[in-house]
Amino acid sequence: MKAHARLTARFEGGRTVLRELRSMAPLTLLPKRGTGVTAVVHLVNSATSPLGGDELKLTIRVGAGASLRLSGVAATIALPGLHGEGSVSEVDVVVEAGGSLEYLPEPTVVTARARHSAVLRASLAEDAYLHTREVLVLGRAGEQPGSLVTTQHVTRGEVPVLRQTLEIGDSTLDSSLAHLAGRRVLATDLVVGGPSVPEASGEWWSRTSLAAGGTLTTSLAPDAVTALKVFESP
């Protein structure tokens, strides 16, 4: 299955309006009614996906001065293909001058024998704001995880803010989880363009400043709820 969903937000008449909202199964975009400055849209997986062989793409465009919040409704479950095919999901983001985007999907669960690749590319204006989160769960309870490659490329102006790739294999449960110190969940929270926040760290988490501006918080935990609690702390 190949699917490409698109979402474009513009600032008009003192508020953000959705100029393009194109869903394509299994990627369904549901706008929330309201008259606030920020437009709110929910992202729903309308079918079991991604399945091995699937190629899914989401394009997000936030115009100058516009404010958009895109949040997930349910976890994404990466499943194996019938013949060992891998699946790919790509998110392509552009935020123009003075624009703001919160992209907060629900966790991605990589099930046994699945081979999944996830890519986030974000191009931000120098004064744009981005808050995005990625929560990766290696396997369902009691299950060996599949293999995962996740890549994040974020630029501000023309300056790289974040370029990182994580690869986790699936030979055995122990060897896969060894990359995460025995924990099943890796969560990252990226903020670019917001108020200055001091660096901090605790047991199995840390918040670091990025050279080109912004902060990256990383958390390792046995479950998603515990991992996300870190991001709720000041």
Outline of this structure?
UreD, UreF and UreG form a complex that acts as a GTP-hydrolysis-dependent molecular chaperone, activating the urease apoprotein by helping to assemble the nickel containing metallocenter of UreC. The UreE protein probably delivers the nickel. This protein has helices at 173-178, 224-232, and strands at residues 2-12, 15-22, 27-32, 38-45, 55-62, 67-72, 76-78, 87-95, 100-104, 108-110, 115-124, 129-138, 147-156, 159-168, 185-192, 200-202, 205-209, 215-221. It is mainly β and 234 residues long.
Order of helices and strands: EEEEEEEEEEEEEEHEEEEH
Largest sheet: 11 strands, mixed
Distance between the termini: 41 Å
The multimeric state of the shown protein is single chain
Rg result: 18 Å
Please, how many helices? 2
Summarize the amount of helix as a percent range.
Answer: under 10%
Kindly estimate the percentage of residues that lie in beta strands according to DSSP: over 45%
Task: Enumerate the spans where pLDDT stays under 50 for 5 or more consecutive residues.
Answer: 171-176
Question: Which overall shape is indicated by the principal axes computed on the Cα atoms?
Answer: globular
Number of strands: 18
Structural class: mainly beta
Give the overall pLDDT as a whole number.
Answer: 89
Describe the 3D structure.
The structure is a single chain. This protein is mainly beta and 234 residues long. Helix content is 6%, strand content 56%. The strands form 2 sheets. Strands 3, 4, 6, 7, 9, 10, 12, 15, 16, 17 and 18 form an 11-stranded mixed β-sheet that branches. It has a 7-stranded mixed β-sheet with strand order 2-1-5-8-11-13-14, with no helix packed on it. Strand 3 (27-32) and strand 4 form a beta hairpin. The longest helix is centred in the C-terminal third of the chain and has 9 residues, at 224-232. The radius of gyration is 18 Å and the shape is globular. The N and C termini lie far apart (41 Å). Residues 171-176 have low confidence and may be disordered.
